[in-house]
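Protein modeling request. Please complete all fields; requests missing the sequence field cannot be processed.
Requester role: graduate student
Desired output: 3D structure, token encoding
Chains: 1
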Amino acid sequence: MGWIELLRFLAAVQAFLLALAAFALSDVEAAGFTILTVAVILLTYWRRGVAGTVALGLLFVDVTYWMAPGWISNLRHHERVAASVAPALLATVAVCGIATAGLRLILRPDRADRADARPAAVVVAVVLALAAAVTLVRSGSGQSDRARPGDVTLVMHGVKFAPSALRASSAVGVEVTNHDLFWHTFTVKGKGINVRVPVGGHRRTSLNGLAPGRYRFYCRIPGHESAGMKGTLVVTP
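Delivered output (237 residues):
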């Protein structure tokens, strides 16, 4: 196994995990990333795979950017194993992919592809096992940010809020749950409320301090508000 084969294998694993998430969560963004990953794998067969290696490296960086913080955040909030395993595996595969792509370019493709990358594959397997072990040990019951009596609940799914209209007293809070693979936020502009929620995460924010009135909330992730992730919050006395 040369470095290009290891790189393609890691990309195929990422595509498989993304496809699973797309199917399980009915997530259009995950499906889009799956298709993109497959397309870039095919690009590695063109002209020694240099352009494909660079593209895969950038794709791995993007996945790491979204998944690694989500994994860490879910562990810190003691979410259930099911909420942490997807970002854990995707982040770990992506980090290994970044290293593989970088080393292939540093060693130069012709030389790297003649070298034996099997020891690196063993390291990848060990790192994945460690990530899985950490996830199992550090995950909790998922109760740390659950709704309290009187709270209203808000679900993020399919790049939408459900419901898109909330009504609550300033004495309670909002429990937000993300059923999409990528991050979302519950943001009330100019009011100091900006709750970041990773995949499978439950986060609670208090409405304390909001005066009675009508407010607009939305997701701050670029492109999500224009895709429909917005709504209204009516705070009652």
